[in-house]
Write a structure and sequence with these properties.
Number of strands: 0
Number of domains: 1
Shape: rod-shaped
Order of helices and strands: HHHHH
Largest sheet: none
Protein name: DUF4212 domain-containing protein
Distance between the termini: 6 Å
Number of helices: 5
Radius of gyration: 23 Å
Keywords: Membrane, Transmembrane, Transmembrane helix
């Protein structure tokens, strides 16, 4: 096998190993995610941009409902991101393994 193919095979192995050993972001930074979620939940309803009204105004000053909706929105966004990132990583890992297997098949 040529030197270029060997280097490509080593590169594929390294990429596969890196993807398999990548720590889960949510498990690694769970405290930061919770702190950011609490800050977003507390700040977002009362935040106003220039010439606009805050979010609590649109909820007729119903504070518990507004904070609950902001918190649930943050939780849903985190769940969607978690699922999306996991699916993307699995697809990339599968593609890299198939490419490595194909190179191993034609190795001679």
């Amino acid at each position: 096998m040529s030197d270029l193919k060997e280097r490509r095979l080593k590169s594929l192995d390294y990429q596969i190993q890196e993807l398999e050993n990548r720590p889960n972001y949510y498990k690694k930074y769970w405290l930061r995610i919770i702190v950011i979620g609490v800050l977003v939940t507390l700040i977002a309803p009362e935040y106003t941009a220039k010439n606009s009204k805050n979010l609590i105004y649109y909820f007729d000053y119903n504070y518990p409902l507004c904070y609950t909706i902001v918190a649930l929105s943050y939780i849903v966004l985190c769940a969607i991101m978690l699922l999306t990132f996991n699916i993307q990583d699995k697809k990339k890992l599968k593609k890299l393994k198939e490419e490595r297997d194909l190179m191993d098949l034609f190795r001679s």
